[in-house]
Amino acid sequence: LNLVSPTIDPRLSGYRCRDKIESNLQSQMYVEQTPSERSPRFSGVKKLIRGSPASTGFSRFFHCRPVLPQMRTAEIIMSHENVFCMPKEKKVRPPQHQRKQPGRQYKMRPQPRSGAGHYTGCGKLREKVALITGGDSGIGRAVAILFAKEGADIAVVYFNEHRDARETKRLVEAQGRKCLFLAGDVGREKFCRNAVQKAAREFGKIDILVNNAAEQHPQESITKITEKQLERTFRTNIFSMFFMTKAALRHFKKGGNIINTTSVTAYQGSPQLLDYSSTKGAIVAFTRSLSQALADKKIRVNAVAPGPIWTPLIPSTFPPNEVATFGSDTPLGRAGEPEEVATCFVFLASEDSSYITGQVLHPNGGRVVNG
What we know:
The chain is of the alpha/beta class. It has helices at 138-149, 162-173, 189-203, 227-248, 265-268, 274-294, 320-325, 338-349, and strands spanning 2-4, 15-17, 31-33, 47-48, 85-87, 129-133, 153-158, 179-183, 208-211, 256-261, 299-304, 360-361. The strands form 3 sheets. Strands 8-7-6-9-10-11-12 form a 7-stranded parallel beta sheet, sandwiched between helices. Strands 1-3-4 form a 3-stranded antiparallel beta sheet, with no helix packed on it. The chain has a two-stranded antiparallel ribbon with strand order 2-5. The relative contact order is 0.14.
């Protein structure tokens, strides 16, 4: 066994990990080389020796590993946790912050793209009825618009963002489809029952349920998460899916579609969003289990796990400097737009996905989640 003490390659200065790179390494890492790999042409590493004396003090996993001097390119040594390095963050939009939650889309700069312009429908959802929670803005608005362009009537469920909801209604009706407003708290089962009943009474049926409503409250430590915050996050993000689904089932005619919004955080985790990412993990399990429970009723259940997407949730929960660089560390170098996620919902709601249930789509800018 030949141990070589590597150094940090200066060419790595343009890269960073999801977590901060430790500037002053307490110890060196070592890699194993075979005799044939000791030549100057060697451009890879075989194995990170995690048990060596030099590596045992390196307690954190979210760091770029040092690279062999022989390496010609800025290759990153990855650990088995599948943590990978991303391009350096850069400012991609003006710093901004909204003090109030839920966030308001009309205040965002630039405005998120919702598919009202270039997208052309072809009748994939003709005469269908879709109920969308969190449909006033962000991903929910984009889904509502694209569904309307495909021929569906829309029931929009939202909390209290009335101005955003009115704009969504205008954009849906501009496609020649009907749009019903339903304002209230999806974390309460009574409201969910009433909202579903009103939508079914207005349109005569429900064909598609999109469980999209969510909230998040970043905290530096688990000790800062109060019981009130924990319950609130779970009620909005996952309890609501149980409530809406229970109420909607009796209104499905000849099968149906349920599409749940989870998140990349369900797969990669998020140290500042412990409660939020926990609910998103629960949504993945909920989707898989419900799909099996409803398969014999010809009701398909799938989910979408967006990565960093430019929605009102971002400026209303993160500080201005983080908002300015949000999404720039993805492989594609930017945050996604709501319309880029909404096409996944169209696919899952239509007959294009007739043989798909219990699955999750990943519009996340190139982050490999291996889920």
